[in-house]
Amino acid sequence: MTRRFWVFIEQEEGKVHPVAWELLGVANKLAADIKDEMASTGEEAVVEGILVGHQVEEIAKEAMQYGAHRVYVVDDAAYKHYLNKPYYTALASLVEKYQPEVFLIGATTLGRDLAGSVATKLGTGLTADCTQLEMGEPKGSTKKLLLATRPAFGGNVIATIVCKNHRPQMASVRPRVFPMPEPNPQAEGEIVREQVFTDNGVINAEIIKIIRNEASSAKVEYADILVAGGRALGGPAGFTMLKELADELGGIVAASRPCVDAGWITYDHQVGQTGKTVRPKLYIAAGISGAIQHKVGMQDSDFILAINRDPNAPIFDVATVGIVGDLFEVIPAMIKEIRAQKEVEHANT
Predict the structure, then answer these.
(1) Which of 96, 138, 236, 245 is 20 to 30 A from 117, alpha carbon to alpha carbon?
(2) Comparing 2-194 with 216-347, is the CATH topology the same?
(3) CATH topology for 216-347?
(4) Per-residue confidence at 154, pLDDT binned at 50, 70, 90?
(5) 331: helix, coil or strand?
(6) Is the Cα torsion angle 249, 252, 257, 260 positive or negative in sign?
(7) Taking the domain 2-194, which CATH number applies?
(8) Three-state DSSP class for 216?
């Protein structure tokens, strides 16, 4: 018997969302979690990618570098652009054919729209926006199942959810919650081309034109440098100062939840349990106290610089370097010093 761990490889116009590669890494870890069970039963665990689109076979080959043993490809002009019904119909058809045990989908805008539809079509459970995944034995079970952990009640409760009686066990995962695996250029695998019949009843809409507003959303998840502000900023004007610093460093402004709740900055900048998870090379936390709900969203950053007037602020527990001081004095001094260094470098070139 084969126990299949599936990952939906999200792509738009031939460009893969990085969360797909992150999830392939997770799926391989989940498969490794059941090695002890497979040794006793003779079962086999495989990690497989599901790819839907048009002229996307090169993506399937790339997926193998990130850990897919096999990729099922539904390649047809009907799937050139994402539409909910054709996509969920295709995925549900493949699930019914191959019976995967676990199915992971990125909790992106597209993924959130798709995952719920797939789960509804299949009559199975879906744990959304997970922050932790593992295979374990819940009470009353003799077999390891997917333990999917996610925040609930506004981040005040952490819930671990199990889907005992239905398959596949589905979960959506936010980008950057898990690290991206290193690609292996020598990796090989199998491409299985699938045909899913489509008709006018399935393709019930037509995309006439796509208009993108690239400035409408802050891409904080994959930024290398983030300058984040907290309640101590005192209002929206404080983010103007942080943006100055972010611009000097080549970074993006981020925020803690209280700032978003207060309307000082939009939700797409929010970092934390109910916002976005980030792993930048540099994370500057200015005036952020460091509640657990915020720390879980940024604690895996490579280098964390915390600035806070309170020497006992919890943010210092995860900081690489901490500055106890007034952010309205520290941030302008940083901006001034960075600009001075740039002027020196410019003069020497």
Answers:
(1) 138
(2) yes
(3) Rossmann fold (3.40.50)
(4) low
(5) helix
(6) positive
(7) 3.40.50.620
(8) helix
